[in-house]
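User: When convenient, might I ask for sequence and structure tokens for a protein?

AI:
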Amino acid sequence: MKKIALLSCLFVLALHAQDRPTSKEKKLWAWSLAALAAGNVADAQSSWKAPEANRLLADSRGRFGWQSAGIKFGLQAPLVAFQLWQAHKHPSTGLYKTYTVTNFAIGGAFGGAAIHNYKVRQPGQLP
């Protein structure tokens, strides 16, 4: 996970151009951050108090809880902070486009995981 995040950051920096982003590109990027956060929240909510397959996120009983949510959001926060820093210090069209596509894709993947989580739960097991 760390290697992928680092490689993604380096990839974005390599694509960095000096052209200024438009207002439309900035707004779309902001919406992509919202989609990323919404997907992450939906995934966490759909996993709440359920058995967790990811050992990194599972608590001592093997379930998803507060500790798991803290880890999950704690991993996302620095990546979003890095995007915000890059957008402020080195704004470019390429940077905004790359982050926008990446955020929408990852947010969609989290949303897909949430849908899967709801499908595999037993009827009386809703959070």
In short: The chain has four helices and no strands.
